[in-house]
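Support reply, case 0932

Customer input (verbatim):
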Amino acid sequence: MGKNIELQRESEYSIFSIDGKITLSGKGKSIKMTKEGIYILRLNGRSFKIIVK
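Our regenerated output:
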């Protein structure tokens, strides 16, 4: 079980839980999320709120 986040190009990324703890980081074109929840995705100097269901 899990959801994939597909990026337009290979990029370095960091994913934080809603309470600010880093949960995942790496470099790639696809990010596999294994747990449902609300996260902050930091990508190319910008932040995005994502919801994984």
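We compared this against your earlier run and they match. Two observations from our side: The longest strand covers residues 3-17. Strands lie at 3-17, 22-33, 37-43, 46-52. Please reopen the case if you see a mismatch on your end.
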